[in-house]
Design goal:
Blueprint: H1 2-22, H2 32-41, H3 49-79, H4 86-117, H5 125-145, H6 155-188, H7 193-240
Helix pairs in contact: 1-6, 3-4, 3-6, 3-7, 4-5, 5-6
Keywords: Electron transport, Heme, Iron, Membrane, Metal-binding, Signal, Transmembrane, Transmembrane helix, Transport
Cofactor: heme b
Transmembrane segments: 60-79, 91-115, 127-146, 158-181, 193-212
Length: 251
């Protein structure tokens, strides 16, 4: 349990560090050129029907990739720790692999769409995080396919790296989806509240399932121990007060 606590702490710290370094600060250069560039980034975006469709498609591809399929893959592989059937474990494992492969394909399609159709000056938080995120998204499946066999000494190091990178991609990816929604609202002035609420509900549900999986074994173990303790108490009472099987003799 302590090991999982440290892993979560490292994942959160790593994600926060990425966001900290990628987020532009107030003390950045304030030269006229930079101010003019910043002014341009907040100018209202003139949405043509084609651009509107491309933005919606980009948002859908990235949400379905880092906002849904990748967290779903994490949940699928995590459920295997509570499953005893070998066939069920195989199904969950291959479902995990399939969901991550599809997620990488969708993220790649979103990257191609962004590079070929949008302005990519990388002068805002959303684009900077997205660029770094794409690199890690393509690195993660490579690490996954290089999985060492069980029993190999390097296996624990590989597991920790694969787990931390996967959690980091999910956390930073979801954060960048929020940032992208906010950026869309700033550039277009259109309401994004329904999408923000839906994304929050989905992320909250997945986070609950993820944390619940960690405690499920503990809950089951406590119930088994309580049941075993109850059986021991009943057996102790039977030994202390044995039933009288002999018939009473009437004089």
């Amino acid at each position: 349990m302590l090991l999982f606590g440290r892993k979560r702490l490292l994942a959160v710290l790593g994600s926060c560090t990425v966001l900290l370094f990628l987020t532009p600060t107030q003390c950045a250069s304030s030269s006229p050129d930079s101010l003019n560039q910043s002014y341009k980034t907040v100018q209202p975006l003139e949405l043509t029907p084609k651009l509107s469709l491309q933005l919606k498609l980009h948002a859908f591809l990235l949400w379905s990739s880092v906002g849904f399929l990748m967290p779903l893959g994490v949940l699928l592989i995590r459920i295997t720790s509570n499953v005893k059937s070998t066939n069920s474990i195989k199904i969950l494992f291959y479902s995990h692999v399939a969901s991550q492969i599809v997620a990488v394909i969708l993220a790649t399609a979103g990257a191609v769409l962004s590079i070929s159709n949008f302005e990519n000056a990388f002068n805002n938080t959303h684009q900077r995080i997205g660029l770094v995120l794409y690199g890690f998204i393509w690195l993660q499946p490579l690490i996954g396919f290089l999985r060492p066999d069980r029993g190999v000494k390097f296996r624990s190091v590989w597991y920790l790296a694969h787990w931390l990178l996967g959690i980091g991609i999910c956390v930073v990816g979801v954060a960048n989806v929020y940032i992208g929604i906010h950026t869309y609202h700033e550039r277009t002035g259109r309401s994004v509240r329904p999408w923000t609420v839906l994304l929050t509900v989905e992320v909250s549900a997945m986070a609950f399932v993820y944390l619940f999986q960690d405690r499920w074994n503990h809950v089951v173990r406590q119930q088994q121990e309580a049941a075993a303790l109850g059986d021991d108490d009943e057996q102790s009472e039977e030994h202390a007060y044995p039933a009288n099987d002999h018939k009473e003799v009437v004089p």
